[in-house]
Design goal:
The protein has about 80 residues and is of the alpha+beta class. The protein contains one helix and four strands. The chain has a domain of about 50 residues: Kinesin-like protein Kif23, Arf6-interacting domain (Immunoglobulin-like, Sandwich), CATH 2.60.40. It is flat, with a radius of gyration of 18 Å.
Length: about 80
């Protein structure tokens, strides 16, 4: 699973949850040793206009990584709706 979070104010190293830091380091180490992996992502982006109208854009993507030196990204078409 891959999640993208909206930008927010930075967090200082002193305030970072130590357990979260340990988990992130373990994940990084695991992916660094992994020869092949893939990621599937469903991507939704919503815009609320000044007049209250909501626009939603949706897409999906797949990324395949094989080391050394190979990666490929597939991206499906973007669909949109409004309410």
């Amino acid at each position: 699973m891959f999640t993208v979070l909206a930008a927010r104010p930075g967090i200082s190293a002193e305030n970072m949850d130590q357990e979260a830091g340990t988990i992130l380091q373990q994940m990084s180490t695991y992916l660094g040793r992994t020869k092949t992996f893939s990621v599937n992502a469903d991507i939704d982006f919503e815009i609320v206009r000044q007049n209250g109208q909501k626009l939603q854009l949706s897409s999906s993507a797949t990324v395949v990584m094989a080391r050394p030196g190979f990666w490929r990204k597939w991206h499906s078409s973007i669909t949109g709706s409004r309410a």
